[in-house]
Structure formats: structure tokens, C-alpha cells
Amino acid sequence: MSDFAARGRDLDQRRKARSAFLAGMGRGLAGALLFALPMLMTIEMWQLGFYVAREKLLLLMVIDLPLLVILSHRIGFEETFDWREDVRDAIVAYGIGIAASAAILFLFGLLNLDMPWSEVIGKIAIQAVPASIGAMLGRSQLTRDEDADCEGPEPRQRRTSYFGELFLMVVGALFLSLNVAPTEEMILLSYKMTPWHALATILLSIALMHGFVYAVSFEGGHELSPDTPWWHALIRFTLPGYVIALGISLFSLWIFEQVDGTGLAALVFATIVLAFPAAIGAAAARLIL
Fold it and tell me: Considering its fold, how many domains does the chain have in total?
């Protein structure tokens, strides 16, 4: 009788684990659509899939996979306890991103079987990167509170090291910059800016980054102890975060073919313009991930 009860408990645990994983995949699909739909409906992203340099596209895809693995370790589809499970979750998120991107592009008539396969693959691949990040973020943003009350292993403690905080800022900056980096407006705005506009944009970006996390009491925000000087977090987190936003912005402009033929001054200004949403994304990632 005890063996029968043990087998019953084992089957029940397996069903719960299967249900939790399928629910996680559902949230991943919802996240892929929610976070990537603006890019799936942007003409510049459709065009990039056709003409972006294939080595740049490959580099973006190669970078995306380890990024998803590390994200899975923190906010995967389910609680994971070793890196093999994180790699599995990352591959699942990539698969969701590819499937969602292909389905939406076919639905809108942006892909058809008469197109060269290089164009089809390029369009899906470039959209799958933000969609896969959205799929992984779907667990963090779309999980119900009662999910945390389900029986099973204790959820991992979300303690983030200093370098973990920097990584979260990379994810947030990359994800938000992907939304606008391919657009012509980035270069257009750079030609309209003056050095004073650029300086004001830098100062505002830094102020918003710092304020979102430390000053305006958003849920997930960080509080400084009374013994900590005000400039400590600014120097330790906010300024490095803004440097990350600048670096991610320049990388995104390069990946999306916005660098070639652009003068140095216009490129600097375009990087500063793109770093504005990237900085907000970096700050938001520290709050919500």
C-alpha cells in the first residue's frame, strides 16, 4: 500500500511539474508577443532581415543564447537547480521566439514561400532575438502570485550580486534599444541635436536612471541606508549603468547598419539619443527582474 501511495505521489508531482512547465511556456509565448510585437510590426525590422550583414545577424543570435541562459538562471520558466536546466529553458525560449516571429510574419503576409530562403530565415532570425528575450521575461512579469504558493521546492532567493545587477542593466538596455535602434529617427534626431541638447540628454538619462531605482519608491526599488552617502549608488551603479547603456546603444546601431555612412558627430549624438531609452530600460530591469 505504501508503494502504491508513493507511486501516486510521484505521478502527482510529475503532473504538477508538467503543468507548471506548460504554464511557463504559455507565459513565454504571451511575453514574446507582448514585448516583441512593436518590432514585429516595424518596417525597418522587416527590411533588416533582408539586407543586414549575415555575420552581424549571426553575432546577435550567438550573443542571445548565453544571455537567455543567464536570464533563465534568474527568472526561467520554472525553478531550475543546475545549468543544464537553464540551457534547456534558454533553448525553449529561443524556440518560442522563432515560432512566434514566424507565425506573426506569415500572418501579416510578410513571409511567403516564394521568397528566397535566406530572406525568410533572416527576417525570422532578427525578430526571434527580441521575441526570445520577451519569452523569458514573460515568466517574471506574467506569473500569478499564487504560483509562488504551490507545493514544491523553495524558490531560489533572488539575491543579486554587483555583477548580476550590471547584467540586468545590460538586458534591460539591450531589450529597449532593440525597439528603436533600427529606425531612421535615431539618425534624424542626431542631425537635429546640438552639443547642448546632447549634454541635457545625458544628464536627464542619468537622473532618470538614478531616480527610478532610488528616489521615487517604485516596487522593487532600492533604498540606501542612512549611513550610505548619496553619491555611493550614483558612482557604483548609476554611472556604470549609463556607460552600459551607451555601449549597448552603439552596439545596436552597428548591428542594425546605422553606423556606415554616418559622420562621427552624428554617430555620437545618435548613441546618446538611443542611450536615453536604453538607460530607462537598464533602470527598469533592476526594478522588475
Answer: 2
CA nearest 130: which of 179, 85, 58?
Answer: 179
**Residues 227 and 239 reside in one and the same domain:** yes
Structure-model confidence comparison of residues 155 and 21, the more confident one: 21
286 touches 169 (CB < 8 A) = yes
Q: Which of 159, 174, 190 is the last residue of a domain?
A: 159
Q: Which residue has the higher pLDDT, 167 or 145?
A: 167
Domain boundary among 94, 129, 159: 159
Instruction: Please list, residue by residue across 174-186, b when 16 or more beta carbons sit within 10 angstroms of its beta carbon and e when fewer do.
Output: bbbbbbbbbbeeb
The Cα 272–Cα 286 span in angstroms is: 21
Q: Which position has the grid cell 518590432?
A: 39
- pLDDT tens, position by position, 193-251: 999 999 999 999 999 988 887 765 455 455 555 566 666 778 888 999 999 999 999 99
pTM, two decimal places: 0.80
Q: What is the pLDDT of residue 2?
A: 58
508503494: which residue's cell? 3
**What is the torsional sign of CA 137, 140, 142, 148?**
positive
Distances (CA, A) of 46 to 181, 232, 289: 13, 44, 29
Count CA within 13 A, CB hemisphere, residue 159. Answer: 2
If you write DSSP's letter for every residue of 134-176 in order, what string do you get? HHHHHHHHH--GGGGGSSSSPPPP----HHHHHHHHHHHHHHH
Q: Is the pLDDT of residue 142 over 70?
A: no
For residue 145, give its domain range: 1-159
Q: How many CB atoms lie within 10 A of CB 142?
A: 16
